[in-house]
């Protein structure tokens, strides 16, 4: 195979890899079973007080590429979905959608996206989950288990 043929194959394979990556990023992972926005956080606090379950609070935006990857590759994985369903209450908050959610993001000290927190003890214990990218689902679950112990 000549040099042009090799370059063509490399470009073709690269385009395929990029297209598949973009396709996965565009998947709508809406986390429908999560409570939503500041109102959902208020509801989660009420449920937390009744059940004692900790609350996972995800701050994200629609334009954030890292948020899309985190939601699609980690939060939507069956193991994480199962863990969250049985061990935690979950709230997703896009601070750009309403003022109450923006104010809540300020209270949490959100400085970038995605940012994930675990809330315990009626809000007296709030932990920031620092590692949300370039991790496996197993590593994520381990972090969450440590945060709720």
UniProtKB/TrEMBL annotation:
InterPro entries: Thioredoxin-like_sf, Thioredoxin_domain. It comes from hydrothermal vent metagenome. GO terms for molecular function: protein-disulfide reductase activity. Signal peptide: none annotated. Keywords: Membrane, Transmembrane, Transmembrane helix. Residues 11-149 form the Thioredoxin domain. The chain crosses the membrane at residues 6-22. The lineage of its organism: unclassified sequences, metagenomes, ecological metagenomes. It holds the Pfam family Thioredoxin_7. This is Thioredoxin domain-containing protein. One of its GO terms (biological process) is cell redox homeostasis. PROSITE patterns: THIOREDOXIN_2.
